[in-house]
Amino acid sequence: MVLTSGTTGVPRAVTRPLSVRTLVGPVTTHLSLIPLRPAEPIVVAAPPHHGYGLIYLAAGLALGAPVVLAAGLGPHEILAAVAEHRAGVLCALPIQLRRICELGESPPDSLRAVVSGAAPLSPDLCARLREVFGERVFNLYGTTEAGWAAIATPDDLRLAPGTVGRAPRGVRLRILDPSGAPMPPGHSGEVFVDGWQPGGAATGDRGYLDRTGRLFLAGRVDDMIVSGGENVYPAPVAAALTSHPDVEDAVLAPVPDAEFGQRWCAWVQVRSGSGLTEPELRDWLRARLARAEQPRDLVLVDELPRTPTGKPVIDRRSGGSDRPDPDGARP
Prior knowledge:
About 25% of the residues lie in helices and about 30% in strands. By secondary structure, it is α/β, with parallel strands linked by helices. It has a 6-stranded mixed sheet, with helices on both faces.
């Protein structure tokens, strides 16, 4: 039994029987790309009570690799744990990896792989990770309900920034339209994962496959708004926000608008020590987003509230009652 992350509500328990036959393909894929070695320590900075951290905890125990639990530690302490234990693999959340990059410290030479998972890895952060860690960065994608769906290798992230990679052996990705018809490469629909359970499972995520089978995500299926007669998704807006060098993270929620019908409100976590202002950020967005995509409201904050897996908290089912509080905005 594994709990969901609770991003869109109260965490739910998910149970799924896993046969040896089901596990063989994904496990061999992972070990061929990110070899975990017996007796070589693994630092798990992701919370072990959710799927991503739990997988690496279980893998280390199964292989006889010491597992160093670093959830809740700061970026300097996580790097120190890697150095102290001569760890070969670090698995962490994107927000943890972003803060490690901000330290400006050289990574320990024992690291062979840095794995990101449990939350989106933006192209901007991916580029920064590659600058700091070199060709050792991997990105995992999956959901508690649907299972592990894709892995992006360093080559994938270099050639196709923003991808979450390809399906492991024994798993198949399908992109379906609302009627259940398959979508061709380059066309978006809901992501379905086959291989972990009979009949496959919907992820609730929207995305598309390129011609090489790499998956790109574009937000949740139910995240789209109609603004000024145009369908607008949050992922491109969030990407434009986080591409600013003084923005650490951003979360969006729809708000009613008299002119456009709906528009976005964006809560933006600003990098510590930055003097970024709202007018400066709006100037940045004007050159990168269409008019309908421009957030109506920008709220600059020092810290966004997050789930234990590092995702900003928005309760869509409650109409946004758990959204970040504008009263917590920076003065």
